[in-house]
Amino acid sequence: MPSVLIVDDLLSIHEMLDAVIQPTGFSTSFATDGEKALVRYKAEKPDIVLADIDMKPMDGITLLKQLKLFDPNAVVIIMTAYASTESAIQALKFGSFDYLQKPFRVDELISTLKRGLEYKQFSAERASSGSGSSAPPFAAAKSADMEGRLIGSSPKFKKLLQQIKKLSTVKTPVLLQGETGTGKTTIAEVLHGMSANAESAFIRIDCSLSTEENFREGLLGEGGGGGSWVKQAKGGTLFLDHLQCLPLAIQKELVSVLRATAQGFRLVCTTSEDLEKLTDEGKFHDELFYRVASLPVVLPPLRDRVDDIPMLVKHFASNATNPLFDASLLEITEDAMEVLKTYDWPCNLTELHQVVTKIAATAETRVVTSQELPMRLKEVKKWPSLADYLTGQQKQYVDMVVRACSDDKAKAAKILGIEASKIK
User: Which residues contact 298 (CB under 8 A, 6 or more apart)?
Assistant: First the structure.
């Protein structure tokens, strides 16, 4: 039976929470302050800690920090008064799974506990998998669909596949991070297709294309209950693409909608920017960030998985049409493949797909050499040296360090914290 440790300095709160939690299948234990809660947690290892934020001598935030030091996977839900929203956001920042604003509804409490338990189980499975245990089996059709859409066998890509398999079993929000063209939309679609709700709706909203008026109608709706997009996603997936483009005013109001409706759908978001940095700069709503970023997935750029390029080329070519021969039989010579592997691919999979599709559709023979590749792929890039960036006093300082090292550039580079090749 899953267990909840209730931490509050009021015994009446213990009795009230015990009365509503026990009938839902959770066992309960209690502590009246943070210090006693730490002792009990270490002894009992409960699945979830439900703690009030306003306690003495150790408050809920301090308890949260101590629990996370002892057990980074501890699932802590903070209870806070309405006036303590800023403290609640701090709790999310320090690793709280969620917070409940007093007075909260019983159904809100129970749904939050269930989501916390789901996250706890996911974390345990992920840790087990990392130590060598195998992941649970998936339905053959779902695995085949994933393998058919996600191409690659490099170490970084295999790690990504493992994450996707695990994430497909939970409803916790997922944030897909990566450069433009790394396949974030495809990952989102695969996550939905492998979930238990694969037959339900998959609602995609491109936050870079819609207007604030449309967001208010589709996302927020009337009374904070969610708009038409949210209602359509019920039981399925709400996919917010390019989340960094969502207007700040909408971000703030979306938090309330997610609190009221989060159990009704799976939320998947993508971003090509550093949301944590934007949050620190006040350009992205802090609570929305901590809500969507509990399970971040970083998609590697193509230049970090060049060993996958031959497989990707074959896959993209097989989907092209050539009037002279079967495009799936296209052969790339070694010199041409070396060019493809060396190129930086700033637009990643999107750019590779465009290049291969065009070559496969227009090639006059099955064998493609480096001569048939676009010129831009073959241009040798000269990386600028440090001196290209420095002028005046900065360059004088670098020259001074080099002279002090008796023109030993390797030694100077170590002092400057740069590569020796970047010193002219």
Answer: 177, 178
Q: Are strands 75-81 and 174-177 parallel, antiparallel or unpaired?
A: unpaired
Are 158 and 307 in contact by the 8 Å Cβ rule? The answer is no
pLDDT digits (tens, 9 = 90+) for 125-172: 655 554 333 333 444 445 555 557 889 999 999 999 888 888 887 778
157-300: which CATH topology? Rossmann fold (3.40.50)
Q: Which two tokens stand for residue 138?
A: 């998936």
Structural domain boundaries in the chain: 3-128, 157-300, 303-378, 386-422
* C-beta separation of 340 from 373 below 8 A: yes
Whether CATH 1.10.8.60 fits 303-378? yes
pLDDT per residue as tens digits for the range 336-388: 999 999 999 999 999 999 999 999 988 888 899 999 898 888 875 544 455 55
Assign 406 to helix, strand or coil.
coil
pTM comes to 0.70
Which amino acid is present at 279? T
Give the H/E segment covering residue 142. Answer: helix 140-149
- Residue labelled with tokens 């030091």: 69
